[in-house]
Specification:
Radius of gyration: 13 Å
Strand order of the largest sheet: 2-3-1-4
Strand content: over 45%
Structural class: alpha+beta
Distance between the termini: 11 Å
Order of helices and strands: EHEEHE
Largest sheet: 4 strands, antiparallel
């Protein structure tokens, strides 16, 4: 299992309950084939450039361990989740 870090930018119009639901959805998905170490809601921040007509977004940081083949599924779910406007998954070096 490798260590990963993932940052997602969520639509700024999503409320606290919606953010909590997204957090639970993604941690549940990661925990199927790995283990979530930490989740940090970094709050709303102004974007460097407009993404999907949004000038700001809510940032969420996930640190986790997972098998390399499960990352493809995680990214697929990020893509089809309407509230997620941008994401990145990076493998951390040991």
């Amino acid at each position: 299992m490798n260590k990963y870090e993932s940052i997602i930018i969520v639509n700024p119009n999503v409320d606290e309950a919606g953010l909590k639901a997204l957090e639970e959805k993604f941690t549940g998905l990661i925990n199927e084939n790995g283990k979530v170490e930490s989740v940090e809601n970094m709050g709303k921040k102004r974007l460097a450039y407009e993404i999907k007509k949004f000038k700001e977004g809510t940032y969420m940081l996930f640190n986790f361990e997972a098998k390399p083949d499960s990352i493809t599924e995680l990214e697929r779910v990020y893509r089809i989740t309407d509230e997620v406007i941008k994401f990145i998954v990076v493998r951390k070096e040991d």
